[in-house]
Every structure is written in structure tokens, then in C-alpha cells.
Write a structure and sequence with these properties.
By secondary structure, the protein is of the alpha/beta class. It has helices spanning 44-62, 66-82, 84-95, 99-119, 160-174, 188-203, 218-226, 239-249, 272-282, 301-314, 336-351, 380-383, 399-407, 422-431, 465-471, and strands at 12-14, 17-19, 23-28, 35-41, 126-127, 140-147, 150-154, 178-181, 211-213, 230-236, 253-257, 263-266, 296-300, 355-358, 362-363, 366-367, 370-373, 390-396, 414-418, 436-439, 459-460, 473-480. Strands 14-17-18-13-12-19-20 form a 7-stranded mixed beta sheet, with helices on both faces. It has a 6-stranded mixed beta sheet with strand order 9-8-7-10-11-21, sandwiched between helices. It has a 3-stranded antiparallel beta sheet with strand order 5-6-22. Helix 2 (66-82) crosses helix 6 and helix 3 packs across helix 4.
Length: 482
């Protein structure tokens, strides 16, 4: 048995105990195909049991004091901190991300739990001057935030611990029971984290069923999402699945983070070396499997040749290899199917006139850092989310045209511009149709305390503990005539 299975009990954490599963599935190390551990596979019955258990404790969790919620969140932060290096090692094995990226994931996870603990003290309402209208004269009015109810949290495979934490920690802070469904490829770190969270809950006299986890296929997810007891659904994943979830959950609240085809504009007055460095750092981290990694690089004509030469010279900095090694910056993508899809998109773009400047092919699930230019704007490689180590270059005459090209997309999560000009910077901030604009830094920059989310097909709602708490609560208005 893998040593990682000793971190938590057998089965699934449902109710106040662990429920057995008759089926298991191997979690595979993407680098060499070895089995990391066997993961329990849940079913519809497990999902329904979890919903029943959440419903039983919903009012008790809603009634938790701010002090107790903050104590729980702080204790979880401390428990994760004590095991930081072990979580990093486990994340490398189940996600296949380089160690440097898994360290970043755990560090950001700790920030998220600390921020959620702090946000508890800032969850409040305000008074309303009801006497603005004659009928309200002599009345007192105020609103507060109340827990919305049961949260169903469905996370993606690329940052499993961080994505789950961005859903679980605010749910606890809001006073909502939460049921987590991790991605089938990467459930291990989340299972371990949930075990630690439930141990902390028990220590603080809170029902363990406040946080539950169910694995399984699409039928499990559909059961959780469609049940009317699930008041809020928070999903991170593909646009196609997100659209289906929104329909299944309606009219209940959904928070959707659905990815993007992130644009980075390099203006004529940019410091070209810094923009090149941004693509090296921002295009290939997490093996390119990040929703705000650099995908579309839009270059001013006057600097395009210099940028292209410099980028190709720097590609050697993206060291490919074993993700467990300190020096590795790129490792195989999650599975062969993903690599074949990416390679197919590249081949299609080439047949339609694109040119591959570096990389471009797949060997199993391994890909070299890839740079493609002259990609047709209606090719999947340009207009869909690649989710792999590929960047596409396009030339334009000016910043105005670049902004129009970035906006000519069904996605809008984050985008970036490199420029010395305040006029160009603010044009990007004001005109780019995205949830976040980054100036002179990679578009993949994300502070875990900021409101994070997209527009258009990149989703709806915002994460970041303070903002997720708002999503997980509803306003309740009090109108009193003394």
C-alpha cells in the first residue's frame, strides 16, 4: 500500500465518519505512469448520504459564532502548515506539476486559510435609512449576511488543494456545510486535507459533517448539483461542464470559474526583455495547465521580430524533466488524451497556415515548450483554452487593435499588457473585457485575497475568501417599528 494512503482512513468522509466504497481507482503519477495510491470511488448513494448529513447540521453550522469559526480556520491553517512539505510531495505525484509549482500551491493554500480566518471578523451588514420614505418614518432598518445553506464545491485537477481550499475555507467562514467533489485524477491531497479539517472541527466541538467529500463520475456531480438542498454550487473547470451545471442548478446560485485563452499584449514601448520573461514564466508553469497561463501573445509590429528571436533564445530556460527535481519547469501534462488533443489542435492550425517555431508534437503525454505563430483566429489553438505548454504569437499595428483582438473571444478571465505608457495601461484596464487586468506582470498573477473570476464564458461570481463569503451568504433585511 502507498504510504500516502496512511494519511487518512479508508473510504469517504461522509457524515461524522468514513463510509466504505466497494470500488477504487488508481491515481497515476503523470511523469512515469506509476500508481501513487488507490482512491475510493463514490456513487450516487454516497452523494445522497452526504446531502442528508449536510441538511441535518445546516442550522447548527449557521449558528456557529464568529469566534469559533475563526478558531477552526486558524487551526486548519496550522495543521496544513505542519505538513507543508508532505503536501508538496503528494501534489507533485498526483498532478505531475513541477515541485516549484506545487510549493507555490501549498503556500497559496495557507494564505487562503489565513485570509478566511481574518475575513470572519469583517462579515457584516449596515443600516438602511428607512425614513427616506414617509411610510418608514420612525422605523429602524438594517441588513446582515446570513449563511445561504449547503455548498457543493467541485474542483479541477490542476490545483486540487488550492481550489478546494478556496471553496471550503469561505464556506466554513460563512457558516455553510460544504460537500467537496475533487477531480477523479487528483483526489489525494484533498482527501487528506478534508481529514485534517474534520479532525479540527471535532476538536472544536463542531460536527465533522460540516465538511464532506465525495468522489465519483458525472452521475455523482449531477446528483449533488441538481438536488434542491444544494443552495450554492461552486465549480472550477471547463466551460462546457460549467454551462451544464448552471442549467442543472437553476434557479439556485452558481459560482463558475471556467478558464480562458489568456491574452498578453506587448506594446511598441514595452521593455521587450521583461515581456519575454513574462511569457517564459507565465506560459509554461503548471505544465501550461493553468486557466490564466499565457496563451495568446499579441505583439506590436515594431518589436515583434525582436520579441520572437528573444523568446526562442530563452526557451532553454524552461527545463523539461522529472517534476520532483528542483530545476524542472515543465513536465508531462496530466494524461495522453490531453497531449493528443493539444497536438491535434496544433496540426489543425498548421494545416490552415500557422507556423511552429518550437516544439509542437507529443510523445505520450510529454510535450516540449511550444511556440506557434500566424494561427488563424478561428482555430481552436487560438480561440479555445489550450491548457498545455503552448503560446501563440500574433502581430498587430497598435494597442487599440491588440485590445480589440483580445476581446474577440468568448472568454474573459484575466489579461495583461506590457507598456511604459500610462495611456496604454489605462486603455487596457478600462477596455479589456476580462475579470482582471495585469500591467507589466504575467496575466497569471493572482493574489488569493483579491476578487478573482471572469466574464463571458469564463464564468460568473468571484473567489477570494472575502468575496466567496459574500457568494455563500444572502442578505437578510430587518425592518423594525419600535
Amino acid at each position: 500500500m502507498s504510504p500516502y494512503r496512511n494519511h487518512y482512513p479508508d473510504g469517504l468522509p461522509i457524515g461524522n465518519s468514513w463510509v466504505s466504497c466497494t470500488e477504487t481507482s488508481p491515481v497515476v503519477f503523470p511523469f512515469d505512469g506509476s500508481v501513487v495510491a488507490q482512491s475510493p470511488v463514490g456513487g450516487v448513494d454516497h452523494a445522497l448520504k452526504a446531502l442528508d448529513a449536510s441538511e441535518k447540521v445546516r442550522r447548527d453550522i449557521a449558528a456557529l459564532s464568529a469566534g469559533r469559526k475563526r478558531a477552526v480556520l486558524t487551526a486548519v491553517h496550522d495543521a496544513l502548515t505542519e505538513r507543508q512539505s508532505a503536501f508538496e510531495e503528494l501534489l507533485v505525484l498526483e498532478t505531475g506539476k513541477p515541485l516549484v509549482d506545487c510549493r507555490t500551491e501549498v503556500t497559496r493554500t495557507l494564505t487562503t486559510w489565513a485570509a478566511a480566518a481574518e475575513a470572519v471578523a469583517h462579515t457584516h451588514g449596515e443600516t438602511v435609512p428607512l425614513d427616506l420614505q414617509p411610510a418608514g418614518e420612525g422605523m429602524i432598518g438594517y441588513w446582515t449576511r446570513r449563511p445561504a445553506g449547503i455548498v457543493v464545491a467541485i474542483a479541477g485537477f490542476n490545483y486540487p488543494l488550492l481550489l478546494a481550499s478556496h471553496k471550503i475555507a469561505p464556506a466554513i467562514a460563512a457558516g455553510c456545510p460544504v460537500i467537496v467533489k475533487p477531480a477523479p485524477n487528483t483526489p489525494l491531497a484533498t482527501l487528506w486535507a478534508v481529514h485534517l479539517i474534520r479532525t479540527v472541527l471535532s476538536t472544536h466541538g463542531v460536527a465533522e459533517s460540516a465538511v464532506q467529500l465525495v468522489t465519483g463520475g458525472a452521475d455523482v456531480g449531477e446528483t449533488l448539483v441538481a438536488d434542491p438542498r444544494a443552495t450554492v454550487v461552486s465549480f472550477t473547470g471547463s466551460a462546457a461542464v460549467g454551462h451544464r451545471i448552471a442549467k442543472d442548478a437553476a434557479p439556485r446560485k452558481v459560482i463558475l470559474e471556467l478558464g480562458s485563452n489568456t491574452g498578453l499584449i506587448v506594446a511598441a514601448d514595452a521593455i521587450v526583455e521583461e515581456a519575454i520573461d513574462a511569457v517564459i514564466r507565465g506560459g509554461f508553469y503548471a505544465n501550461g495547465q493553468a486557466c490564466i497561463s499565457v496563451q495568446r501573445v499579441i505583439l506590436a509590429d515594431s518589436i515583434a521580430d525582436e520579441f520572437e528571436r528573444g523568446l526562442l533564445e530563452r526557451l532553454g530556460d524552461v527545463v523539461s524533466g522529472d517534476p520532483r527535481e528542483e530545476s524542472t519547469r515543465l513536465a508531462p501534462v496530466i494524461n495522453t488524451g490531453s497531449a493528443q488533443r493539444i497536438a491535434g489542435w496544433i496540426d489543425d492550425a498548421v494545416h490552415r497556415g500557422a507556423r511552429v517555431l518550437a516544439g509542437g508534437s507529443a510523445r505520450g503525454n510529454e510535450m516540449d515548450p511550444t511556440v506557434v505563430t500566424d494561427v488563424p483566429n478561428d482555430a481552436d489553438l487560438w480561440c479555445e483554452e489550450i491548457f498545455g505548454p503552448v503560446v501563440c504569437l500574433q502581430r498587430v499595428p497598435d494597442v487599440e487593435t491588440a485590445i480589440e483582438l483580445v476581446n474577440r473571444s468568448r472568454y474573459g478571465l484575466q489579461a495583461a499588457i506590457y507598456t511604459k505608457s500610462l495611456e496604454s495601461a489605462f486603455a487596457a484596464v478600462n477596455q479589456l473585457e476580462v475579470g482582471g487586468v495585469v500591467v507589466n506582470e504575467i496575466p497569471g498573477f493572482r493574489s488569493d485575497i483579491m476578487p478573482y473570476g471572469g466574464v463571458k464564458d469564463s464564468g460568473i461570481g468571484r473567489e477570494g475568501p472575502r468575496y466567496a463569503i459574500e457568494e455563500y451568504t444572502v442578505t437578510r433585511m430587518a425592518m423594525i417599528r419600535p
